[in-house]
Amino acid sequence: MTGAGSGTAAGGGFAARYRAVVGERGRLCAGIDPHAALLEQWGLPVTVDGLREFAQACVTGLGPTAAVIKPQVAFFEVFGSAGLAVLEETIAGCREAGALVLADAKRGDIGSTMAAYTTAWLDDVSPLCSDAVTASPYLGFGALDPALAQARATDRAVFVLARTSNPDGARLQTARTDQGRSVAQSIVDAAAAANADGSATAGVVVGATREHGLDLSELSGPILSPGLGAQGATAQDLAVIFADTADLRWLLPAASRSILAAGPVPAALAAAVEATRDEIETALIGPNRS
């Protein structure tokens, strides 16, 4: 059975695909972060076999339940080629279950190297192909053009780091450009320009753990907001921090550790997704929700 997250271009850009799955499953991005401490917490060995068992439980519990699933690529890469094979299986399983998969790879480079990253994460020829990928714009937003072009052509998306939750990011992201805007705002504005065709090809990453000081009113694309749960942000915080967002349907809160702590039983993971999603929807309900 082919789920809502499977396939490529279906018309209407990423916007249509995102609206459909969020309309059905609610606003939540569930992370898959198989770091060593969590494998041990689940009673699994810190080996490829443990990784595979962890990932399979996540596919079973999260795949049919969460709107978007975000595998943290680094925790698979640490096991080398065998770990990447597990990641391939995880991406395919989550998409087959109907979720959109956002590969948290944070890629960013120039020229042919960026084009190769684009092929790896956003082209059907690759076994790592996902519905979206995270990317760093700090070699210049224009360096992401190959990824944005591929995403636009196949109804996928690129989520660009704008105002992250880590404290060390503030100095760079709040610095002012020659035009008087913050660096983070300039990234949001560039993403908005990329979305002028209505495709929602360019999402942004804006942390949920503090006020961001950004004007997101013209973005017309998804806002991935990590920090919910283990990092300290609550669903009620989201309603405050993003109160000025023009369309809260684009807000995509993300939680990983707080959900994965419910494992290893897949049914418990599914229940954690549902509970977190319901908290978010209750907190964000209002005039901007449809």
UniProtKB/TrEMBL annotation:
<protein>
    <recommendedName>
        <fullName>Orotidine-5'-phosphate decarboxylase</fullName>
        <ecNumber>4.1.1.23</ecNumber>
    </recommendedName>
</protein>
<dbReference type="GO" id="GO:0004590">
    <property type="term" value="F:orotidine-5'-phosphate decarboxylase activity"/>
</dbReference>
<keyword id="KW-0210">Decarboxylase</keyword>
<dbReference type="InterPro" id="IPR018089">
    <property type="entry name" value="OMPdecase_AS"/>
</dbReference>
<keyword id="KW-0665">Pyrimidine biosynthesis</keyword>
<dbReference type="GO" id="GO:0044205">
    <property type="term" value="P:'de novo' UMP biosynthetic process"/>
</dbReference>
<comment type="pathway">
    <text>Pyrimidine metabolism; UMP biosynthesis via de novo pathway; UMP from orotate: step 2/2.</text>
</comment>
<comment type="similarity">
    <text>Belongs to the OMP decarboxylase family. Type 2 subfamily.</text>
</comment>
<feature type="domain" description="Orotidine 5'-phosphate decarboxylase">
    <location>
        <begin position="27"/>
        <end position="272"/>
    </location>
</feature>
<dbReference type="Pfam" id="PF00215">
    <property type="entry name" value="OMPdecase"/>
</dbReference>
<dbReference type="InterPro" id="IPR011995">
    <property type="entry name" value="OMPdecase_type-2"/>
</dbReference>
<keyword id="KW-0456">Lyase</keyword>
<dbReference type="GO" id="GO:0006207">
    <property type="term" value="P:'de novo' pyrimidine nucleobase biosynthetic process"/>
</dbReference>
<dbReference type="InterPro" id="IPR011060">
    <property type="entry name" value="RibuloseP-bd_barrel"/>
</dbReference>
<dbReference type="InterPro" id="IPR013785">
    <property type="entry name" value="Aldolase_TIM"/>
</dbReference>
<dbReference type="InterPro" id="IPR001754">
    <property type="entry name" value="OMPdeCOase_dom"/>
</dbReference>
